[in-house]
């Protein structure tokens, strides 16, 4: 993904590298300087800095409804 794309809580993303559990889809659980995300299959939670997150994301699978998304405060 291009650097600086909009990251939203609830966004579902696909990563370049598969998780050991065999899943490559993650749901963003927090935004800010660090991006938190939860594995959609095994529920594992990881925290990445924004730069690392942008490097790892291959594509955005689903963008949450903006009216339901929690406001991002980390910017
Ligand atoms: Zn997993």
List keywords for this structure.
mainly beta, 9% helix, single chain, 1 helix, 75 residues
Describe this entry's structure for a reader:
The protein has a domain at 12-62. Helices cover 9% and strands 36% of the residues. It has one helix and five strands. It has one helix at 50-56, and strands at residues 12-15, 25-30, 34-39, 45-49, 57-62. It has a five-stranded antiparallel beta sheet with strand order 4-3-2-1-5, covered by helices on one side. A hairpin with a 5-residue loop joins β3 and β4 (45-49). It binds zinc ion. Zinc ion is lined by residues 19, 21, 23, 39, 41-42, 44.
Instruction: Based on Cα principal axes, name the global outline.
Output: globular
Strands ordered across the widest β-sheet: 4-3-2-1-5
The number of helical runs is: 1
Taking the sheet with the most strands, its summary is:
5 strands, antiparallel
Number of strands: 5
Series of H and E elements:
EEEEHE
- Share of β-strand residues: 35-45%
**N- and C-termini, Cα separation:** 19 Å
Oligomer: single chain
Rg, Å, rounded? 11 Å
Bound molecules: zinc ion
Helix-and-strand structural type: mainly beta
Helix fraction by DSSP (H/I, runs of at least 4): under 10%
Low-confidence stretches: none
Mean of residue pLDDT values: 89
